[in-house]
Amino acid sequence: MKIGLIALLLALPISGAVLADSTGSPMPPAGSVSKAEGLKAWERIEAVVTHPRCANCHVGPDNIPMWTISGEKKTRPHGMNIHAGDSRIGVETVPCSSCHASSDTPNVAPNMPPHVGLPWQLAPVAFEWFAKTGAEICTQLRDPKRNGGRDAAGLVEHLHHDAQIKGFIPWAWVPGPGRSTPPGSFETHVQDMTVWGAAGQPCPE
Ligand code: HEC
Ligand code: HEC
Q1: Is residue 12 pLDDT above 50, yes or no?
Q2: Is residue 124 situated within a structural domain?
Q3: Residues 72-89: tens digit of each pLDDT
Q4: Which residues form the signal peptide (predicted)?
Q5: Of 6, 13, 83, 137, which alpha carbon lies 20 to 30 A from 25's?
Q6: Is 123 near ligand 1, meaning CB less than 6 Å away?
Q7: Using CA positions, which residue lies closest to atom 36 of ligand 1?
Q8: Domain, as residue range, for 52
Q9: Ligand in nearest proximity to the CA of 96
Q10: What's the whole-model pTM score?
Q11: Residue 97, ligand 2, Cβ within 6 A
């Protein structure tokens, strides 16, 4: 039974086109996936959420974006003294949008400010991941007070919504030349978040 469900889930034909059209995803019933399976999915999720393509924007209350220049591996505070302010979009100083365009065209040139289909901005402070351990991010991600009020299905729905608006999450796997990508693909990340959710969102002890 358990194996059957997982096989079904993994066999789902998830493609970018299907995702863009879907409004939600089938969430297997709670308890249908084992805790061990959920913890394995979490290991893969952890490698994604701690990756610079995600964590560079999920920074804390100092409001300073992190950056990893095209072709480099070292991550450090954003150059040019960029400060996002409490607005998290830089209205207090230099708005992110003065360099980062809003466009759903692919990012093709190295060393350019990356863009997506919505205005570039930091994630809210409550969603701070940068420099946190995987276990810390895990308990935070399942806490509705620190994830925007989302249950497990709501987190998966957020991924689909982000794909529809050509947002930050799918961008991480097509970030443009010279930038590394998190392991797996956007589609496997959606699958992992679904499996983790159905297993009851287990976190490493
Ligand atoms: C350019 C900045 C940026 C990048 C890069 C980015 N995010 Fe976010 N993220 C945001 C913003 C802004 C929000 C708030 C949007 C909302 O809650 O509707 C957010 C919210 C979220 C949320 C919901 C709240 C929470 O923390 O539980 C998740 C999950 C998330 N991002 C996952 C990711 C993942 C996974 C990646 C990388 C694959 C990523 N983000 C990359 C800016 C970013
Ligand atoms: C003066 C222009 C400029 C402004 C303003 C600016 N950026 Fe950037 N940003 C860049 C450039 C250029 C890059 C790419 C650097 C490279 O790869 O060489 C970049 C890269 C980034 C990255 C790294 C992405 C990655 O893949 O590692 C993040 C995160 C980021 N900016 C966030 C912001 C935020 C948030 C704001 C507003 C508070 C902002 N930026 C304002 C020019 C700017």
Answers
A1: no
A2: yes
A3: 999 999 999 999 999 999
A4: 1-20
A5: 137
A6: yes
A7: 54
A8: 33-198
A9: 2
A10: 0.91
A11: no
Query: How many domains does the chain contain in total?
Result: 1
Question: How far from 176 is each of 107, 140, 153, 184, CA to CA, in Å?
Answer: 5, 29, 30, 16
Do the beta carbons of residue 186 and residue 161 sit within 8 Å? no
Beta bridge partners of 67: 76
Measured in Å, residue 188 CA sits from the centre of ligand 2 at 27
Which residue is it, tokens 């230099």?
A: 94
Backbone angles phi, psi at 56, to 5 degrees: -60, -25
| Ligand 1 centre distance from Cα of residue 167 (Å) | 9
**138 alpha carbon – ligand 1 mean position (Å):** 14
pLDDT in tens, 33-54: 999 999 999 999 999 999 999 9
Q: Is the CB of 182 under 6 A from ligand 2?
A: no
Q: What's the rounded mean pLDDT across residues 156-180? A: 97
| Domain annotation covers residue 18 | no
Encode pLDDT of 86-139 as tens digits. 999 999 999 999 999 999 999 999 999 999 999 999 999 999 999 999 999 999
Three-state secondary structure call for residue 77: strand
